[in-house]
Amino acid sequence: SAGAQVAVEKCNFPDGSTRFVAYVKGTQSIGWGGAEPWDMKSNAELYQGQRSASYQATIDALEAAGAQPGDVVDVVAHSQAGMVAAYLSMESEFDVQMQITAGSPVEPTLDDDQNLVQLRHTDDPVSALSGGSAEGTGSPDSFTVSPEGDPGITVGDIWVDSHLLHSYEETAAMVDES
């Protein structure tokens, strides 16, 4: 629905199997606690290794869509949601086989059978919080794309345009074309 921070698709296949895809938004409020789970409090909690209201809301959305422990769940996430995706991949009871993140402030440690696609802009200060891993993580099919998000000095630098979703959508289109 309009304004939702999590959208879940349930895919049913002819062989009877199902797969869920969770699309999770990033930070929506600079507030601290309250009615909006995708806020700065959840950012701080997730970055410090704690569960957050945004993580719980994502679990609730998956369960409301019918996902159960052991079900395959793929995650597409921006910004704060990259931390939510990391927790889903590493700690939840779901079988997360694919994680696609844009501007995530963390890099998860995934198993060899989990795919990780990371979009990171070299000029995105939020993505830079991850530090990155020299060897990468996840399956051998995992990869990171890290172009400059907002070349040159522009007015967009004031509000960190290189981190905003529209900037990562341009990068994703570039990856699709390659």
Please provide a written account of the structure.
The protein is an alpha/beta fold. It has helices at 40-47, 53-64, 80-91, 125-128, 165-177, and strands spanning 6-12, 18-24, 72-78, 98-102, 115-119, 143-145. It has a six-stranded mixed sheet with strand order 1-2-3-4-5-6, sandwiched between helices. Helix 3 (80-91) links the parallel strand 3 (72-78) and strand 4. Helix 2 (53-64) packs across helix 3. The longest helix has 13 residues, at 165-177. The two termini are 32 Å apart.
As an assembly, this protein is: single chain
Our measurement of the CA-to-CA distance between the termini, rounded to an integer number of angstroms, reads 32 Å
Query: Helical stretch count?
Result: 5
The largest sheet is:
6 strands, mixed
Q: Could you name the ranges where pLDDT drops below 50 across 5 or more consecutive residues?
A: none
> Strand sequence of the main sheet, in spatial order?
1-2-3-4-5-6
List keywords for this structure.
178 residues, alpha/beta, 6-stranded mixed β-sheet, 5 helices, 6 strands
